[in-house]
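Quick one: structure for this chain?
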Amino acid sequence: MLKIEWLKLKRYKPFWVLMTLYPLCLFGLLFLVAGSIDSLMAKTQKVQAIQNITAFRFPEVWTTVTWTASWFHFLPCVLILFTVCGEFENRTHRQNLLDGWTRLQFFLSKVLVTLGVTASSVFWVAVLAALLGATHGSYPGLEGSQTLLYFLEQCLLYNFFALALGFALRRGILSLAFFLVYSVTLEYILFGTAGSMVKNIEFYAPLRVANQLLPFPLWSEAARKLHPGAPGLEVLHAFAVGYLVLFIGFTWWRYRRSDL
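Got it. Here's what it folds into:
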């Protein structure tokens, strides 16, 4: 299945564009910010004092890089949406079934692609954290690296949400428009309205659960004080797993019952 998916993707230009944009944007942004801060510290002649608390040294760099990367989830999601919807728009999913695939095999092939895209994102984040930490005079360590696992969990939530959306709507532009509207405004409106009936339910919206796994590093303590009803990390992990099961189950149910 992976070999056939690779044959499809290796000549698909949006795949290479989006897969290249992700590390370029992430590396470019963080190295630009790090360079600007280093330059400012050199000018103010307070290099040693600030280096001791910089966010670009281990173990803090894990949190800095993963939180920044969380703003770029839309790029892998767009790739997954276009890959899945392209199969339906071009009727290539029918050809797979005519060639002897079962529906389950087609579905699993897209799950594998989604996992591959997720693994790629985590890989680039780990490499970037290691490079930034090394260039700022620190050595890699496991302390603080649990945020990389939280980032993996966050990636899976976003990417499988995109997969479910692609199988449900089957149109690239429509799926992309819905994804952007939902992630930017619609989720907040829906769960904010529901919050007037069910207390604190807004904290359990799918993408908000994902976002709460990696809060802004400097504001995490303040955020907990401002939002006393916010769930703890263990509850967030439980809901994240539940949403993953829901997204994967819905995707398979939708595809299994749909017409070709």
